[in-house]
Structure formats: structure tokens, C-alpha cells
Amino acid sequence: MEEIEKEYRALEIEKKWLNLWDESMYYFDWNSRKPHYIIDTPPPYPTGSFHIGNTLNWCYIDFIARYKRMRGYEVMFPQGWDCHGLPTEVKVEEKHGISKNDVPRDVFRKMCVEFTEGNIKKMRETMKRMGFSIDWSNEYITMYPEYFKKTQISFVRMYDKGLIYRAYHPVIHCPRCQTTIALAEIEYKSGKTMLNYIKFDEDVVIATTRPELIPACVALAVHPDDERYKNIVGKEVTVPTTEYKVRVIADEEVDPEFGTGIVMICTFGDRQDVKWWKKHDLELRMILDRDGRLNEKAGRYQGLSIREARQKILEDLEKEGRVLKKEEIDHNVGTCWRCKTPVEIIAEEQWFVRIEHDRILDGARKIKWIPEHMFSRLVGWVEGMEWDWVISRQRIFATPIPAWYCKKCGEILVAKEEWLPVDPTKDYPKIPCPSCGSVEFVGEDDVLDTWMDSSITPLAITGWPYEHKEYPTHLRPQGHDIIRTWAFYTILRSLALADEIPWYEIVINGMVLGEDGRKMSKSLGNIISPEEVIEKYGADALRQWAASGSTGSDVIFTWKEVVSASRFQQKFWSILRFSVNHLKGYKPDSKDAEKLRLADRWILSKLNRVIEKAINSMDSYRFDETLKAIRGFAWYDLADDYLEIVKSRLYSGSEEEKVGAKYALYKTISALIRMLAPFTPFLAEECWNIFCKATESGNESVHKQSYPEVEEEFIDDDAEERGELMRRIISEIRKLKHDRNMALNAPLKSVMIYTEKEIDTRDIAGAVNSKVEILKEFPSIETRIKQLKPKYSIIGPKFRDKAKEIIKAVNSFGEKEMRKLLEEGYEIEVNGEKIFLEKDWFDAVEERVFAGKDVQVLEVEGVIVLVEI
Ligand SMILES: [Zn+2]
Ligand SMILES: [Zn+2]
């Protein structure tokens, strides 16, 4: 066997295993007889960098996947890429210096595909370097036709079921990105704005933060119980800057406390306007176009941007003396998640997915949420939803909506499943218009929201829509930031398409915060990339950091945690190095268990408790608890205590004595390596390889081994209690050596122990380097005064040149005289002069004597230990 280096070189060893590992070891086999465990992994957005937040998420997934494999499951850990979307369109425009409308749609799409492929390649590398046990044979890429065909099938099926419809309805629109966005994509920002009090006529003054929307005013509203305005309900008032009149209506939802208590209803200032517009069946006056400019309905303000219109209208109103007051107020404004521009509401023909609130909540309730409180986030979101999900987008790089409009009669024709995949901007329907027989169509050029692709992942990975092999899947791991999007949409789609919940369990991870405890951001300069950590400490150390936080909570990135993870790796390496040296050629035999000594039984009992704890906490996704238990056991119980206790037996014991220690050590090391495998796959593989070579037990990967099982027969309270006592006796004796500046392996004359408990003197003797004797009777120990120590600070100044003589005299005292001096003082004669020595001028140095031997007395939990140095 080659010499094992003292230092654990994480970077070299990790690279070595990356080259040696065979990826197919993680391929999922549908035909496997093992119970299946299918993970609906998140398909990340291919930005080109796999960030530290992704790392945390994927570490959790990998801990689970590796653990479940070792527990006997056939695990599917697929990897998808959620490619479509606005950010890529923007990046590609920047990269090529074009606007998407400068080139044909398919040329632009091709640019996006190429760009995305490059990004996927980069991210894939980081994921491989992290040692994730991904099944790369189950990779899916949403921008490729084989995947988006499934998205289109899902659209067609939901359309046929009446769950998707096209309608003229207000939608949230970003004037900068010029596309519709979903409610879930709005980010609220708080800030200050001006509240303007504007006089419509003598009786009617309104307060508004959006004066530019006055030309879109379709009604005024007051609270029905507002005494101030009872007389104006039903009155018609001319809208300033326009010629037309609107009516004052009463509605319970008007807040009489806000502004003047009269509210202007526009189409549309906010979602409340939409509600009133529907409820009171008001007229629609859309003055805003998609590009964020006012149109002809705004009269003389046509062509102005929102900001310009606000200024111009306020100027005009001021000239007319209609602006009575302006006050600054705090307000929340909804902005686009991507570009932070305030969003607008416009009414357009769009495609919608029907939201069935109760059905979704009933489904979500059947899923186990970890941690549990995350479920309430979904409930809150669903209960607050007033609108259906708008799924059409005005973009290019996305899954095409498989639909056409008849040029002649306007009929909507949605593709048949067998025509898919289609791009209606290029392809034609295979049948004439079912309503008028015309063969002339206009293809839909709106595309689908990206969440339409990613919300069918659990279906897609289980064979739907062709041969749907198994459903629901077992687990969805994801971040808490996308509960109201990805989790919500997936549950909705799964119920709609498969009439089933998508997964039995969902485990939620938190976000990663910077070392300063704040959200990582470029402007704060606190971003850490996984590559940066890997280059310094390797992937295993970063993986251990990921396991350090509690599941569901945000985790702070700290270098300190990474450093201590890397120290643990070195510690474990040293443990292995020591152990395999003694395990060369050893194969455990059940007969060896009969030769176990107390220390061996003690460590095996503790080991089995750690295994029990690890299984329990892994099963409930408490990775921090598992790793902490394993690390604590390896570092303290095994290395600091057990190995120190059995060292002498292993080095110089008889074969008979050695075998128990070898058996216990073999079991402990084997179990520890396997328990570490889900967390530190590289370290575990290297250690397993060395361990197997030493013990001549094959060369199969640790990642194909089974997880340690609890062996109940080794759990032994009595051995733990007596083992603990033994450990403490040894540690007290070692402390004594330390306090006397003795080497820890320095020999002692003898150690005598009085205890009624049976303890193993062989191992104590070895550990403290002394013969050890058990006393049958309680030892009678005498205390002797060995010497009197003069207090020089008193005697020196008082007697000066006589001090020396006095000390000489005292030193010649016998036991009896010394005792007398300490009790009542003592008179001596120095050069004929009588001197009385006060008792507090001296300290006693005592010694304990047992059977005539000078001993140190230690007490450990009622056990008397006598040490003769
Ligand atoms: Zn935007
Ligand atoms: Zn037609």
C-alpha cells in the first residue's frame, strides 16, 4: 500500500475523482425494481453563471439524491434549463447591437438559442465541479422543440377543457419592456409622490397621484355613508381637459379618509379601478398605448409620454385655477421585476389561464410542505388573487402560442395535438376555418409566458404526455422566492392536466446573504461566486457550508464556515490515515465481536446512536443537524477519545487484545465514510478507496454503497456509562500531567482506582502509560504536611539577616512542630534570641499518602483515583 500523505489536498483529489467518476452511475432506470424517488428539480434560467443561491439549492438536492440512493431508492435527479424569457432577448440585443424587430423572428430566435447554449455550457461546468450527482441522460432544455412541443400540448389540452381562453381584459403592462407581465412579476417599491387636489367643479374636488390619467376618467365615486357628498351622487360632472361628462356614483370601497373622499375612477390607474370598472359596467377609455404614450383619446396630449403628460396636464390645470393643493405622500408603486419601470394597466385581447382557487388550495394542502409555514405563503397568495393568469407575451424568444385567426371571420383556430410543435407565424393550420371554410389565416404572434414551460416539469420528466409512467413525483426542492410563481403554477397545471398533485413533498430553501448579512448585490460588493470558493477550498468545503443553515431559512455566506469545513476534512483524513494503518488486511468476523472491550463497545454504541440520528434528520431534511452530529462524533468521540484510548492496545497489545479494537474501528470508519458521502462526495470517495484497498474489500465507489443501518445490538447504555467514566478518568490523569508540565505519554509509577463499577484497566493503563490497579476497599488516605513555605514578603523585611537562620530552623521541623506552628505559632531560638513565629507567616505544603506512597488524589464522579507520579 502506498504511503498516505499527511495533508489532505482537496483540490487535487477532487479533480482526480471528477476524471475517474462514471456519470452513468447516476442514470435513472425506469425498469429498476428498487422503489423510485423522482425529484422535480428546478430548471435554472441560463444566465451563464451558476450563483451561490443556486449552489445552496442544488446542494440540498444532491444531499437528498445521494442519501436516497444509498437508502436503496432508484433516484431521478434530472437537470432542466428554463431558457425562454426577456432577459435573454435584452442580452442578445445588446450583444449584436440590434433591436429584436430589426431582423426576422427566426433569425432573432436563433441568436437567442446560440447565446443560451453557451450559457448552459458554462453553468453545467460549475455544476459538475460541485460534484452534483445529476442524471445528465435526463436533461431537458425548454427552448428545443422536443420540450416546447409538450408546452404546446399542455396549452391545447387546457384550451380544450375550457381552462384557457382568450379575452379582452385589463392586464399589467411594462411600457419599457413592451410586454404583458403577470401579477407575480410585479415588484413593489415604496417612495414619495405628490397628491394633487383638483377641482372638477364647485362641489367636486378630487385628490390624485396620477393627474395624467384625468382624460381616462370614466366615473367619480364617494362612500354611500359620506354625509358630505350625499347630494352629489348621480350628478354629472365635466372632466377637466376634456369635453365629456362623467357621473358620480356611490361605492362601499371608497375610503372617505383618503384625499377629499371623492375618488376618480380611470381606465386604468390601478387594480381597484379595474374592479370598479367591471362592477359598475363603466365605459372604457384607454388613453395609453403599449409604448407608454398617450393616444388620440387623450386629445391634445396625444403622443406625450406618461411623464410629459403629467407635467403638461398639471400646467394646464393650474392655469385654469383647478389645482387647489399639493401634498407629498408615501406610496407603493408596482414596478416591472426586470427593468423596475412602473407598470401600467391596459386592456387588451390576451390569453388567460383560469384560476380555480379552491381546487389549487385543496391540492396544495395534500402536499407536505417543509418547513410547514411555507404553505401559508401560498395560501396568502392564492386567496389574494383576483385575476386569471395572463399567459400571452409580446415577445419572440418563447414558446409560440399554437393558434391562428381566420382572416375572413375572425374565428380562433387552436392547433390539433398531432400538428405540434408549430410556429403559427410560419406554419399554417392543416384544415380550413371550421366556421366559414376560408383557408386564409393570421398566425398568433404573441408567445407564452415562460412559466408555461416550467410549470409542467414534473409532468415532462415522468413521460407525460406520451407514456405517463408514474405520478405524482416525490419531491420538489425550490427557493421561497418562487412559491407564488413556480410552485403555484406547477400545482395549478398538474391538477389541470393530470388531475393529480405534482409532488408528495416540497422542500423550501432560503436565500443566501452576504457576509455582512445583507442580500448579495453588485452595488454592495458582497457577492461571492461558487468558483471563488472552490478555487481556494474545493467543492466539499462549500457543500459543507451549504449544509450549515437550517432548511427554509436564509443562510449567510461566511468564509469562517468554509475554513472550519476544510479543517474537518483534514481531521477526518488524519483519522483515516491512523486507522487504515491498523486495519491492513483486516476483515471483520462476527466472532470478533465477542472480543470487544469496554472502549470498543462504548464507541460502537455511540456510533449507532449517531447513525440513528443521521437517518432521522436526513429523512426530515435537517442537513445541518446531520452533519453536525457526524462531525462532532468523528472529531471528539472518535479522534479525541477513542483513538487515544485504544492507541496502545493497537500498537502494542496482543492479537487477542487488538481484534476488538480493529472490529470497532472498522465498523466506525466504514459507517462514517458512508455517512459523509452525501455531503462530501470527493473526500468520502478518496477515503473509501483507501479504506477498501487497506482492508482488501473491492474497489466499488462509495456512492454505490448502502447507508449505514442502526445495529440495535450495539446500543448499550451500560457500556456508554462505564465507557464515559473511563474516558473521564483518563482525561483527568492527562490533565494532571499537563498541569505538572509532564509529557502526555510520560510514564507514571502507578494508578490505583477505587470503584464498584467494572472498568477496563488495560486501556486506561495504555492511555496514561502506567500500571493500573483496582482497589477493593475504600482507600484510607493520610494528609501530611510536607513542608512549610515561608512568606518572604513578611519574614524578609522583619528579620533581614536573621531570616535565613529562621527558615533553616523551620525546615528542620518534624511533622509535629510544623502542625503546632500552623495552629498556634511557635517560638524558636536563633543565636540565643527568642523569636515567636506567627502562624500566618507560613503556608503548608501538604501531601497525600496511601500505603506509604506519595499520591495525587483525583475524584471522578465518586470514583477515587490515586496517581503515584
Ligand atoms: Zn420592464
Ligand atoms: Zn372563418
UniProtKB/TrEMBL annotation:
Catalytic activity: tRNA(Val) + L-valine + ATP = L-valyl-tRNA(Val) + AMP + diphosphate
Motif 'HIGH' region, residue range(s) on this chain: 44-54
Residues noted as binding ATP in the record, renumbered to the chain: 522
Alphabetized Gene3D superfamilies for the sequence: HUPs, Isoleucyl-tRNA Synthetase, Domain 1
A biological-process GO annotation: valyl-tRNA aminoacylation
CDD domains referenced in this protein's UniProt entry, alphabetically: Anticodon_Ia_Val (cd07962), ValRS_core (cd00817)
Motif ('KMSKS' region): 519-523
Coiled coil start-end: none
Known EC number: 6.1.1.9
GO terms assigned for molecular function: aminoacyl-tRNA deacylase activity; ATP binding; valine-tRNA ligase activity
Location(s) in or outside the cell: Cytoplasm
Function: Catalyzes the attachment of valine to tRNA(Val). As ValRS can inadvertently accommodate and process structurally similar amino acids such as threonine, to avoid such errors, it has a 'posttransfer' editing activity that hydrolyzes mischarged Thr-tRNA(Val) in a tRNA-dependent manner.
Domain free text: ValRS has two distinct active sites: one for aminoacylation and one for editing. The misactivated threonine is translocated from the active site to the editing site.
Protein name according to UniProt: Valine--tRNA ligase
